[in-house]
Design brief:
- There is one protein chain.
- The chain has 140 residues and is of the alpha+beta class.
- Among the domains are: 53 residues; 35 residues, no CATH class.
- It has four helices and four strands.
- A hairpin with a 5-residue loop joins β1 and β2.
- α1 packs across α3 and α2 crosses α3.
- It is elongated and about 85 Å long.
- Pfam families: HTH_Tnp_1.
- One of its GO terms (molecular function) is DNA binding.
- One of its GO terms (biological process) is DNA transposition.
- It comes from Rhizobium tropici.
Length: 140
Amino acid sequence: MMEEGQKLAVRLVGRNGRRRFDQSSKDRLIMACLEPGASVSKLARDHGVNANLVWKWIRKHTQPLASPPSSTSSFIPVQITAASDEFEELPRKAERNRPLPSPAKVSASLPNGVKLTLECSDVDALTAIIGAPGHVQTWR
């Protein structure tokens, strides 16, 4: 355990008064807090640090490291099963005189094991469904 009353080594104090602590001092305090029977709040007080900050350091220390960015591409492989090499241009929507023979179906297998299948007889609706996730905003 660290010596009682020992302050953490401050590496830098910013203009706003925020202290940057020496990493080795932080590591020693974290290891002392992880010992059985240790009181994080008492150790934090003894070392002149807020207990919530010490808990944050402990969580960061004990969480598994985030996996490094994958060297593989984020793109999903697509299989195109066209029977002919010729490209037949479809008539424009206004020029279509018959409905599509069968619903359009799109299947995707994601790298995380999720399988997604979309089936819709309206190609425009299917296009909108596929494009919708690109316009979703997530808030953190």
